[in-house]
């Protein structure tokens, strides 16, 4: 049975870019006759707020995007992530690291190398230096190529060791990293299909590596095109994307459907009517996979 999910972070309200991910994942699940789960990724407590979590639920309800089962909150699942981390450590797949980000940046700049997309050089892989203190836990990567077929983006291949290096699964501030939490959650809840924005495509090989190390199944992936603003930056809270308006949820759905290649949704009726129209017409392979400006509708609505 198809099981999908939507996993927003409550560091702000849903905006048009969030709606694309929510709507695409909902449509893919419902068109397949499957379930659609809702998970609130609130592990980063300094950036998460309970009132934003509640507001996101209200936004989804207003849009007619109903979910199945109870809402899952990552902040209540730390014990599960600790179990997974302990399993990685006991099997020799993870180790403690004393390096700060500045030290990694300084290492990367030796010889004039660029600092973008820092690759961890493996400084603590064989043990921390004398006199240093443990800061974070990293997963030991290898030179095996991780390959998968994304349902929208096509063939993807990455050697994680070369392009990322040993990556963090427990941060220096004691917060479990996204990569570990999402893998544990998807496996435990039986997620068969992950539909999300293409900005997360590059992190998928790390998640597949973790799935293999932990003995978890790998779901199918579909990475939707991201909406960008007039400057070409991805719509996000960090780039000032405005929250979805409180009124006219059906109009918001029509705009997102047009972005996903389903123009011509009925200009009348409730959100549920628009969603029913879209469900019968959803074909993921017909969506233009390239990032693009969000909207033919008024720019202020989306950005």
Order of H and E elements: EHEHEHEHEEEHEHEHEEHHEH
* Silhouette: elongated
CATH class of the largest domain: Alpha Beta
CATH topology of the largest domain: Rossmann fold
Main beta sheet: strand number and arrangement? 3 strands, parallel
Please identify the structural class as seen in this structure: alpha/beta
CATH-derived architecture of the largest domain: 3-Layer(aba) Sandwich
CATH superfamily of the largest domain: HUPs
- Give the neighbour order of strands across the main sheet: 1-2-3
Report low-confidence residues grouped into runs of 5 or more: 296-303
Helix content: 25-40%
What is the strand content? Answer: 15-25%
Total number of distinct structural domains: 2
The averaged pLDDT comes out at: 91
User: How much is the radius of gyration in Å?
Assistant: 20 Å
Specify the number of helices. 10
Number of strands: 12
Terminal CA distance: 37 Å
């Amino acid at each position: 049975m198809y099981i999908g999910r939507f996993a927003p972070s409550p560091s702000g309200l849903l905006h048009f870019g969030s709606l694309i991910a929510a709507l695409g994942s909902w449509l893919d699940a419902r068109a397949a006759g499957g379930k659609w789960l809702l998970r609130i990724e609130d592990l980063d407590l300094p950036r998460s707020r309970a009132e934003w979590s509640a507001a996101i639920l209200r936004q989804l309800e207003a849009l007619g995007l109903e979910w199945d089962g109870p809402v899952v909150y990552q902040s209540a699942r730390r014990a599960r992530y600790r179990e997974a981390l302990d399993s990685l450590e006991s099997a020799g797949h993870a180790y403690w690291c004393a390096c700060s980000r500045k030290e990694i940046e300084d290492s990367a700049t030796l010889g004039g190398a660029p600092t973008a997309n820092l690759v961890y050089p493996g400084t603590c892989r064989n043990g921390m230096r004398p006199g240093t203190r443990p800061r974070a836990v990293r997963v030991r990567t290898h030179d095996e190529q991780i390959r998968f077929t994304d349902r929208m983006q096509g063939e993807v291949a990455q050697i994680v060791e070369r392009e990322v290096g040993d990556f963090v699964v427990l941060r220096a501030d004691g917060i479990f990293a996204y990569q570990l939490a999402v893998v544990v959650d998807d496996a435990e809840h039986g997620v068969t299909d992950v539909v999300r924005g293409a900005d997360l495509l590059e992190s998928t090989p790390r998640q597949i590596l973790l799935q293999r190390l932990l003995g978890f199944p790998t779901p199918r992936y579909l990475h939707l095109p991201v909406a960008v603003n007039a400057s070409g930056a991805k719509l996000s809270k960090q780039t000032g994307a405005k929250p979805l308006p409180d009124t006219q949820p059906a109009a918001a759905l029509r705009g997102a459907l047009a972005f996903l290649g389903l123009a011509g949704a009925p200009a009348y009726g409730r959100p549920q009517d628009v969603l029913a129209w879209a469900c019968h017409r959803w074909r993921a392979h017909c969506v233009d996979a390239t990032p693009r400006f969000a909207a033919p509708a008024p720019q202020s609505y989306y950005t």
